[in-house]
Amino acid sequence: MTGARWGDAATYALLGMLALFFAVPFAWLLSLALRTPAEVYRGAARFIPAEPTLANFGAILSDPAFLVYLWNGLKLSASGAALAVVLAIPAAYACSRFDFRGKMAVLLGLLAVQMISPLVLLVPLYRWMSALDLLNRDLSVIAVYGALGMPLAVWLLKVAFDAIPIELEEAASIDGASRVQTLARITLPLARSGIASAFILAMVMNWSQFLIPFILLERDADWPISVAIFNFAGSISASTTQLLAAACLIAVLPAVAVFVLLQRMIVSALISGAVKG
Amino acid sequence: MTARPDRGPGAGFAQPVPWLAPAVLVLAAFYAVPVLDVARLALSDATMVRPASGFSTEALRGVLSDPALPEVLGTTLIFVGVNVVALQVVGLVIALTIVRGEGRELPGMAAFRTLVLAAWVVPGIANGLIWRMLFDEAPYGTLNSLLGYAGLGPVAWLSDPQMALVSAVIANVWQGTAFSMIVFYAARRGIDPVLYEVAALDAAGPWRVFRSITLPLLRRAIAVNTVLVSVQTLNTFDSILALTGGGPGRATEVLSLFTFNTVFYNLDLAGGSVLAVLLFVLGLGMTLAVLAAGGRNPS
């Protein structure tokens, strides 16, 4: 029994060290964001600020431009994720329920295209969007988000559909429902947690996207938060580090919060996808 | 698209084409055709402001003779190579430790996993900005002021060329480890527990169990994950852009960042397309390796 006890102590020692590595950046970011400019210069001595202040968050959140960036980020991420899921549903259903030649090729192809850097795709897409006069329109970013998010969504939804007993669909078809009706009335409602996982995962990825909105949207007022903080960082000096920290924290928080709250659902979807894939 | 859906789930006779059409169209329009178009642009004289006027290998020759290219490729090789090892070692250690902790019903395992995952969802740009604050070389910078307490430092985290690359790897490991952790966690949980029960009856030590059971049975997951992580790292540039901007000099300018700068700052479309093709070919090579390793497994 003592051996196992020592093992437990070693487990905690190891995870404790790693936890320090993973927690320090978050903790430091919060610490900086709560400091007055004078305390920023005190370094680690004021890890816990002597005079904590919310003024930095106040300054950021009272800037109307910043609220627009947050709204743009939310709007683009959610629309792009919704498009990805809608595009993925028919293919995921076919791959789950039909037997056809080339199914493996479709599924592997969907995996393979995720290996292509968005940078490679964006060079021609930028030119096309420009030719179609779609530059500086949300539509162009949403379309690219939809296309980039679709492959993973197909895989996650296929796994979700696989888990639904086919007998339920057969019962509906005996009652004369077409396949589309069966999908809409039986399968999709039963797969809602899988659909939600795919949507949220795509949304979190879109929230992190920098390259696509940075290239396709040139106007300041159209930018999502990820592009805006990069631009903001370029205008920052040592005396305004605490403002950048507050802005970063506000940019990071929505994604982390959603993910932490829903991680049980998302991680189990990812793990079941990883096991089957 | 005009084919009517058949009635009822009569699996074998279903017509998959209309169902697959949206996905296949997206794959064609947003992946296949752009890749072909990049290859075409690479063999042209186009710039961002001027369309291609004809076939030319000038851009190709220009990029290949660019003295910066060997340096960029060397940096990329180091960045990807070190990250692939570091991400997987840390990810494997965490996954196995969490599984052990869960087996012993120790509290705190889920909280730790959540912490690692939280770093994963931090946007790449924010990751670069956060670590730039941590690596701040002023006396009040996070790491240097901590080192100051221990009587060490200061370290030139971002201004020394070699240290800057180390710093970029550290920031990437912080963010990227969660992916390997999930893959290895899933693979480790997939191993039949009976094997471990037998090993316990034989009084095998933890190292022996790891060498004889865990590692051999994780070999396929490690092979697949190696390739996935390599490609992800190869394509990473937003965190480096925010952390160092590729500097000092070109010390942290990896291939994807170099491509980005060539196209969108130098507006050299043909040259950037050559680099994009190079990026694609490197990624493709690694992807074919993953398909060769994973394709045998029916989904």
TrEMBL record, chain A:
Membrane topology qualifier: Multi-pass membrane protein
Claim: RNA-binding is one of the keywords in the record: no
Keywords associated with the record: Cell membrane, Membrane, Transmembrane, Transmembrane helix, Transport
Signal peptide range in chain numbering: none
InterPro entries: BP-dep_ABC_trans_perm, MetI-like, MetI-like_sf
SUPFAM superfamilies: MetI-like
GO cellular component: plasma membrane
Domain ABC transmembrane type-1: 70-262
Record bears the keyword Transmembrane: yes
One annotated GO biological process: transmembrane transport
Cell location: Cell membrane
Membrane-crossing segments per the record: 12-34, 77-95, 107-127, 139-157, 195-216, 236-262
Entry's family note: Belongs to the binding-protein-dependent transport system permease family.
Alphabetical list of PANTHER family matching this protein: INNER MEMBRANE ABC TRANSPORTER PERMEASE PROTEIN YCJP, MALTOSE TRANSPORT SYSTEM PERMEASE-RELATED
Protein name according to UniProt: Carbohydrate ABC transporter permease
Automatic annotation (TrEMBL), chain B:
Subcellular location: Cell membrane
UniProt source species: Palleronia sediminis
InterPro entries (UniProt xref): MetI-like, MetI-like_sf
A single BP term in Gene Ontology: transmembrane transport
Pfam families named in the record: BPD_transp_1
Name of the protein described by the UniProt record: Sugar ABC transporter permease
Source species, domain of life: Bacteria
Membrane topology: Multi-pass membrane protein
Gene3D superfamilies given in the database record: MetI-like
Major subcellular location class: membrane
Membrane-spanning parts: 12-33, 77-99, 111-134, 165-187, 269-293
UniProt record similarity statement: Belongs to the binding-protein-dependent transport system permease family.
Keyword Coiled coil among UniProt keywords: no
